[in-house]
């Protein structure tokens, strides 16, 4: 056999070996099930926020760009019932990339809001406490202490208010175990304008 033929055979053998290594490597990466991939992402996010209340919701679909992997969108709400919750949205492709190689969108964190509209409950809560700095809300939190105050936020397409109906609003309510009343704020979703602030007595 000539030199050229020998070189050709060696090149073919090298290509076969590289293909086999690549195939085996991809096979190892394709071993995760949907549930396993979601569990890895959830555990990773929760471990990133120790000593915090973390709620993670995920949506996983087979990756179109990386066959054998899962494209996972995960929303993480940190301390969601406190006056300054955080709201992050991550995207992962696992196991094609390690968990640290993710993209992250921050909607609100550390009492700072990065959105112009109120699209989720953490933003509505932070809007009333930090962005608007409402005196009734601040007084309530200061009086009963940040650690003891719980906050809820619920979106309504229609909400009765002062004898009429308001539409597309958030109702944010502050409560504390030692308080005999709650403080509620009604916000317009699109503009964040306060439509009403009122106290409600707790049942005796």
Describe the structure.
By secondary structure, this protein is an alpha+beta fold. Helix content is 30%, strand content 37%. The chain has helices spanning 3-29, 34-47, 121-131, 135-144, and strands at 54-62, 70-78, 86-94, 103-109, 112-113, 150-161, 164-175, 181-188, 194-201. The strands form two sheets. A five-stranded antiparallel β-sheet has the order 1-2-3-4-5, sandwiched between helices. Strands 6-7-8-9 form a four-stranded antiparallel β-sheet. A hairpin with a 2-residue loop joins β4 (103-109) and β5. The chain is elongated, with a radius of gyration of 26 Å. The termini are far apart.
What topology does this entry show?
Blueprint: H1 3-29, H2 34-47, E1 54-62, E2 70-78, E3 86-94, E4 103-109, E5 112-113, H3 121-131, H4 135-144, E6 150-161, E7 164-175, E8 181-188, E9 194-201
Antiparallel strand pairs: 1-2, 2-3, 3-4, 4-5, 6-7, 7-8, 8-9
Beta-strand portion reads 35-45%
Structural Rg: 26 Å
Q: Give the % helix.
A: 25-40%
Instruction: Report how far the terminal alpha carbons are from each other.
Output: 100 Å
Please outline what is shown here.
This protein has 204 residues and is of the alpha+beta class.
List the defining traits of the structure above:
204 residues; alpha+beta; Nuclear Transport Factor 2, Chain: A; 3 domains; five-stranded antiparallel sheet; disordered N terminus
